[in-house]
């Protein structure tokens, strides 16, 4: 029977490759694998059915099985799909929540960062701009609050104010009504004003100044004050910032001595002399300004700390006029009691001096029993305290708040041993009456242990003061003697250290409690006994102490004071006990900062050839800076990581140096974790070093340093400059890197080679280290110190690597290779006088008129808030890099001229130090023969000029006839020509500039000569004389014409070289020998003391001559020279000629500076002008013509150095 085509023929073996049973199950999960097996089984059932006759019992049975199997498969597919859908939903929800959480976290971080930046800007820039902009129609409001520090016996005070802009009146002066004065102190009064004035129609300008004059009227009635009002002083306040927005805020301005000058500029304020201690307090605000219009109190005691000093009144650390260097030293711990700072601005702590009671004078002096009665002090214990850091007690004997000296001429003070809460060595629990006698004043590690017994710290240590207490009392006008007590606790470590180490007693300690015990009675005898005294919160005040004015800490200390009798033998015995060990027996202190060798070469590679994979981390260390320039104070390092596209890879970080390190060689101990899923292989770590430049009291960039994080494999591995490199090694190791003193060009591609082509800061370097972060046990993620709160295991885990000593030759110097100039300079950098970072911080604080002591954490916060890098921060002035060294000398090069009088002429230049020898200029001008002194006679180069009067006359005649002199240059007869002029005076000290750059513009000819070096002794009046002459040839005869001359100052008054690229105007005509002689006289021994009072520089003298109408000194109109002066210690700097980016225009006349100046715009215009090569005769080559010019100069002026 034909049933037609079999419907299951599609499942035959020949077509089986199209069925699901051929699906591979390798990449399927468990549910999908079960469904695939069911699909295979279903296909097998169909295959069986295809071979069973249709309609049979077996066929129906198998069909039922197939239906059940198919239904089961459908249900399982539904369940599997539902589970998959739920899993996808869960993953999606989890991812969404993570993204929301990450977004909220980043938003919170951004908001916090913005708030922190805003706070820093408020502190740096003063008051911030309000929500609305300044409107002239609404104007501004001046709130006059009070004046402090007015002289005594003044009953009234008033203020007259106006707004001026460089002499232009923007607001007509008005008067603030007179107010009564009230007593402020024994010497001063104060005036609380409490008035406000709204000022309209003031155009916003950065030069607009609010000028105030404080007056002392006779009466509050204006009619009674005619010719009776006295001007006390005046001050100023700048009203607008660079964006021409109003500077709102609370300000206190110093009062300067009169007279008032309404034409004053902001630059001239620094020359004013302030009246000590006199200030005016005011507020600047918008109308209806809630931030600054409302004052919570009118009384200075409540609000004076809220006012800030405007930037225009800030001075440097020594003051603008003060020339003498202040020797500022920080008190060491042995002087802490003697140098306790007693706050004088806190009325809570203020105590009037208490005179001795009359009873003292009623008590007669006891009869002298010839016995010396010393003092024994025992520190027993401290109660109610359980410290977590090291702690010790400082005891001192004071009289009139000064440390008493004993009979050995040593200070009467001592330290107890150190209690170390982490020490495993427990102190023995001594009987209550037992004490441990101390021999040394300062206990070190030999007695350090754990002294904690419950809530009590036990010392039971005794020290004896060899000082006759009764005699000291009577011989010093019966002034009481006190035992001063200071409990000192060590600061928490900022770097990893072993708290149980024997050296852990060292470090910085801060006072956590203090008090005094009076030790004498009214007759001078000693009050022996056990004293249990409360410890007060710092700061300390002078004894006697009013306990009701002090805040108790809750801690108490037990002190036993006893009298003991001593004699001369006891003193000698104590000296023997405390005699220091011989140097060979004393333990050598490990050198922590520098080796005797300031530079130790080490070119050995350090990185490991191990591929850097994803999820690996980097630990980056900054150990310190070395041999920074002279004018640095506290240096801060900013660290950024950029890729080749100048995209930041990590957030910016910064670090400050350790307070006990020094300013020229600060130690940082900075560690940064760099963690990311994938770190760009082209990453470069860029470090920016900033400081407060003490020469100008402003933040400046010292320089930049950089190092790549990775290197490519291979024998000649390179640092990646592409993001597509897949296999790299971490550039691990310790490195000494140079610091570059030029601004970085932040352009793409941002590569390490571009940075290292900049000018290097001589001798200065930065020490860094790079390590691969340790991985977890599975090797999947980098570990972090955040994972291990216990610092003791950081070393064992490889999370922390202590800073090595430089002397161990650890740091690789392949990036930093010292040149010969640096090697000569290193010894001078080593011997510079250096002070600690803490001392520098206090000098900065003093410059801001802050008079208080800070904890170390507060000092760090202060430095963090005040030493800030901004986009406007400029590079440090390299003039003050290092003091002038005569051994190295000064380099000079004349690059060319600008705007010459005649473009068709050829110009040459002669230059020399003043005074030049050899007859080029008269050494002694007319009428000066009798004025020379010992300075001249001792000069070996000057003696030939004093041999004969005829010689001087010959020189004068030579100068007179110079313009008329025409010299024949016979071709190919140099020897004959030289013999012809052999009898003329030979010039050995004059330099010639005659190598012309023929491709330059004829209007601004350039020279192509090399540097010239001078090694003269420092003289602040020293300068370089530049003499410009034109040369023409008529019938092969050279003729020279004086064009102009000028001087180039070389030194600053304090001994630095004025390095830079300068444009300097020319004085018309020949060099004035009388002027050169006047400059030379400035440094004569017989006039040196008189010249010390003269602060003028050589250029100032020249300008005085120019301003004198009949002096004959006139500028050669718009013609100038462009030259470079360089301290030879800065080898490799200022290599570019006509560098418009560095051109210094300070010497150009201010009224015509734009007409004189050579800048980028002028440089572009000159490219279209006539070339200098057009002046070369047609039949001559440029080289031969230049040689002809040079030969004419040499033989005309007998410049034998060029022959």
Keywords:
1203 residues, alpha+beta, Immunoglobulin-like, 5 domains, nine-stranded mixed beta sheet, eight-stranded antiparallel beta sheet, 41 strands, 19% helix, CCDC17
Describe this structure in a few short sentences.
This protein is of the alpha+beta class. The protein has 20 helices and 41 strands.
What does this structure look like?
This protein has 1203 residues and is α+β, with helices and mostly antiparallel strands. The protein folds into 5 domains: 30-97; 140-313, Immunoglobulin-like; 372-492 and 508-570, C2 domain (Immunoglobulin-like, Sandwich), CATH 2.60.40.150; 611-866, Sandwich (Immunoglobulin-like), CATH 2.60.40.150; 890-930 and 981-1202, no CATH class. It is 19% helix and 27% strand. It is built from 20 helices and 41 strands. Strands 31, 32, 33, 36, 37, 38, 39, 40 and 41 form a 9-stranded mixed sheet that branches. An 8-stranded antiparallel sheet has the order 6-5-2-3-4-1-8-7, with no helix packed on it. Strands 9, 13, 14, 15, 18 and 19 form a 6-stranded mixed sheet that branches. Residues 10-21, 127-131, 317-361, 497-502, 579-596, 929-935, 943-952 and 963-986 have low confidence and may be disordered.
